[in-house]
Design a protein that fits this description.
The chain is an alpha/beta fold. The chain contains ten helices and six strands, in the order ααβαβαβαβαβαβααα.
Length: about 230
């Protein structure tokens, strides 16, 4: 979005990403008890979408992926949140006869960190026309827990560039079901240790609230100095 705005305003545009408090949102490494607490089996592999549920996300792709992987034992696709599209997704899941999908309501903020840590894989799903306009706000928290995210973002988009540069997640082409399914296979069967490490490190070094605010303050101070220097 910053790249799109800049030529229109003909001046520098500074981008500040959504911050996260990495002391409140952090990895919990022993997930078995957490999974049981939220009604899953300790042996379940949880693939989670958590956030707004609307048509623009293209969340139905998760249901078609669940159909593709329905013969794999102990896989549970979880869609958590609220929105006008949720009833249609539930109807689609029923029509597909899905037994490996669970819908959950919004979770209390007090248990948000625990709930994010239940997931083995996180979905950050966007349609192609949104992938270079919005940095998904949910991504900051996923990175902070050291989560393995599957992100739909096309080559050339800022989000794709960021993820590739720092090796933060598994990427899939937006609105491409086969690509999403392939990314799920990678996330399930590859060693994701480095992605988890990179995600947490990026959250601490680039997205931590104090880091973002310090950069903002520095920019204000710099602009104030420039303004004073140009006064008559």
């Amino acid at each position: 979005m910053a790249r799109i705005i800049q030529p229109k305003v003909k001046k520098a545009v500074q981008l500040f990403l959504n911050p996260v408090d990495s002391k409140l949102i952090y990895p919990i490494h022993h997930k078995d008890e957490l999974k049981v607490k939220y009604g899953f089996k300790s042996s379940d592999t949880i693939l989670l979408y958590s956030g707004a549920i609307g048509e623009k996300q293209g969340i139905e792709a998760i249901l078609y992926a669940a159909k593709e992987f329905e013969k794999l034992n102990n896989l549970c696709f979880v869609i958590c949140g609220s929105g006008p599209y949720k009833v249609r997704l539930q109807a689609l899941a029923e029509s597909l006869g899905l037994k490996n999908v669970r819908f959950l309501p919004l979770q209390p903020s007090a248990s948000f960190n625990e709930f994010l840590n239940v997931a083995d894989i996180h979905f950050v799903i966007q349609k192609a026309n949104a992938s270079d306009l919005v940095m998904p706000s949910k991504l900051a928290a996923i990175l902070a827990v050291g989560g393995v995210a599957i992100i739909t973002a096309n080559e050339g988009s800022s989000l794709h560039d960021l993820v590739t540069r720092y090796d933060l997640a598994v990427l899939a082409e937006a609105e491409n079901q086969e690509a999403l399914n392939d990314s799920i296979k990678k996330a399930l069967f590859n060693d994701n240790t480095q992605i988890k490490r990179n995600a947490r490190q990026y959250a601490e070094e680039a997205l931590e609230r104090e880091v973002v605010m310090k950069k903002f303050e520095q920019l204000l101070f710099k602009n104030a100095q420039v303004g004073q220097a140009t006064l008559p």
